[in-house]
Specification:
The protein is of the alpha+beta class. It is 56% helix and 12% strand. It has one domain (3-198): Glutaredoxin (3-Layer(aba) Sandwich). The two termini are 19 Å apart.
Length: 200
């Protein structure tokens, strides 16, 4: 089994039964794209925020919407450094069940400085989700059931087994890359891998 297949198996092995394909809920791009990238990220990580706001829009424009790359978000909160990271990931995981992962993803990073230092971020998170038209009753049921937390824990364990040690980290078709690099770093890497994969 290739390392690419291994990471997908690790991330899916303990997925909650209620989520048919939790990775699909947190992915962008065509399932048949020649290249798949797994982003391992922490919503409270300032470097992850920088990547999400400065680099990812260009990647989406140049590689995802053009059908070259499928992008999958993997929860990798580091609570030893970021006290509210797990709660944020759990919120996003539950929002994904209503097809609201990406709006919540964007808002969590945009408001990171507002909620990161809160002793109890729950009221802020719930009001944010409500503003994004996430069904509050369904969201609360998911949060109370522990489904979101189990998914987050499964993702994080899989990321560690795959070799991730920091955030953000990116598993790109057999290799691991770490750091909030600009598009100028990602572009030649993705271009070369897309070219190789597309000619096979």
């Amino acid at each position: 089994m290739s390392r690419f297949a291994v990471i997908a198996a690790l991330l899916l092995c303990a997925a909650p039964a209620a989520a048919q394909d939790p990775l699909a809920q947190r992915s962008k791009g065509s399932p048949t794209a020649p290249v798949t990238v797994y982003e391992m990220s922490d919503f409270e990580c300032p470097f992850c925020k920088r990547f999400a706001e400065e680099t990812f829009p260009a990647i989406e424009r140049e590689f995802i919407t053009t059908g070259k790359v499928r992008w999958v978000y993997v929860h990798f909160p580091i609570p030893q450094l970021h006290a509210n990271a797990v709660a944020a990931a759990e919120l996003a995981s539950c929002a994904a069940r209503q097809d609201k992962f990406w709006p919540v993803h964007d808002r969590l990073f945009a408001t990171q400085e507002e909620w990161a230092a809160l002793r109890d971020p729950a009221p802020f998170f719930l009001s944010m989700a409500k503003a994004l038209r996430v069904n509050e009753a369904q969201l609360n049921r998911c949060l109370q059931s522990g489904e979101g937390r189990r998914e987050v824990e499964s993702d994080a364990a899989g990321a560690v087994r795959a070799g991730a040690k920091s955030t953000p980290s990116f598993y790109i078709e057999g290799g691991m890359m770490s750091g909030a690099h600009p598009i100028e770093v990602f572009r030649p890497i993705l271009d070369s891998i897309v070219k190789v994969k597309s000619t096979k």
